[in-house]
User: Fold this.
Amino acid sequence: MKAGHRSGCPINLTLEMIGDRWSLIVIRDVMFGNRRHFRELRRGSEEKIASNILADRLKRLVQLDLLSRRDDPSHAQKAIYSLTESSIQLVPVFAQLGAWGRRHTPVSRELSIRARLLEEGGPAMWKDFMAELRAIHLGAPQPARSVFGELQSAYLREVARGARAAGTRR
Amino acid sequence: MKAGHRSGCPINLTLEMIGDRWSLIVIRDVMFGNRRHFRELRRGSEEKIASNILADRLKRLVQLDLLSRRDDPSHAQKAIYSLTESSIQLVPVFAQLGAWGRRHTPVSRELSIRARLLEEGGPAMWKDFMAELRAIHLGAPQPARSVFGELQSAYLREVARGARAAGTRR
DNA sequence: CAGACCAGTTTCAATCTGCAACCGGTTGAG
DNA sequence: CTCAACCGGTTGCAGATTGAAACTGGTCTG
Assistant:
């Protein structure tokens, strides 16, 4: 146990790593939104993270081995952020946090569809999703099932449904 | 969706409630340590929370309906904090956070035994634990199995093992 | 009635947060 | 070649949050 830790409790040590208001948001956007560049993470996120906070968190998450950073071969000053095995193993944590949030917070329909599918899919789906993330981020062989695709198309379907409803309302 | 939220994403909304360095620590101590009073939470916790922070978090968690507070009939100025149904449903979240922490952080042996048992016990054990917590905190009928007892005695066994080892070392 | 115990509160310095403006370098279109 | 858009950040600053330490007003016990 390295000095500077408050205790050797697994919950505490985990919170020391990801127990703040932004770290998991950043990892979520890389994981579920496949946002890999600084600008994508900044513009794309619903929560409008400030650039200095994002820069700080990216640096920190790379240090903690929850993200890795490499140069984009297609563009000299573009950086690509990827998940690591450690952050891929956060999938069950995200699933449980999402499941809890869906029951106990005022979630929006479009943004909670992924949490719902992940909850209904259970550990088997999480495992398939993790295998796919290893393919996307770590260069592992592509698995047969694309959970990412399932989640993404369900999300887009919900967004379309919302837009249609908004249209009829006018 | 109430104003003031950054977004309607379940992950984000959950983090807005419990995504800080102390809230889950406090709930953990009530849940796994059965610490119900201010002084117990303050003295007992490994992480030595400051009294003003603890007071602030308790107030906030009560507002968020993650804890409830009532007077202790045996002592006019003693307050008893209890889990609510919402926080009892955080059991799977704690289980996953603990499981992740055990793999990816430098946990201590004694403090990680509970996380290990909870991980090995799986969802069936979580369910039994939640039933027991409802008995302890919400006055539900006492279930047959005491997961709390299993966790506690395993922890004490580990502490004793550590003390014995320290003794022989001298 | 003294001393321990109770749940906090106060004070203050240090750190962290988040907004807005800015930076130098890179790229692609004309 | 020029220029505008884009790249991943950095800087400056005000306000909020954190955390250590001392303290408060009240209650219970011997």
In short: Residues 8-84 of chain B form a domain with the Arc Repressor Mutant, subunit A fold (CATH 1.10.10.10). Chain B has a mean pLDDT of 94. Chain B touches chain A through 48 residues (CB under 8 Å).
